[in-house]
Amino acid sequence: DDVRNRRLIIERVLSMGDLKDVKVIVQFYGLETIKEEIVEAGYLDNKTLAWVSNFLDIPKSKFQCYIKKQSKQAHWDNY
Asked: How far apart are the first and last CA of the chain?
């Protein structure tokens, strides 16, 4: 379902798609919907996060996946 699963679809296209795929989801969902959904994404790799942040002009600190990464402490940081 392209409405119920839009966050997952947007997340996957931005992570694994090419520019042609990005254009398709922008036409289908619109930039505002993409912005609303992508900041709530559970995971984006660092490269995708940097690109999406720049492309949509949203600071990284607004992304849930960035906040989760920053709050997790690696086991070797305890020393």
From this structure: 47
Amino acid at 14: L
| pLDDT at residue 58, rounded to an integer | 94
* pLDDT value at residue 20: 96
Q: Tens digits of per-residue pLDDT, 46-71?
A: 999 999 999 999 999 999 888 777 66
Tokens describing residue 49: 């996060």
Report the SS3 class of residue 72. Answer: coil
Cα–Cα distance for residue pair 55/38, rounded to 1 Å: 12
> Which residue is listed with tokens 């402490």?
73
DSSP secondary structure letter of residue 42: S
Q: 50 in helix, strand or coil?
A: helix
Round to whole Å and give the CA distance between 68 and 62.
11
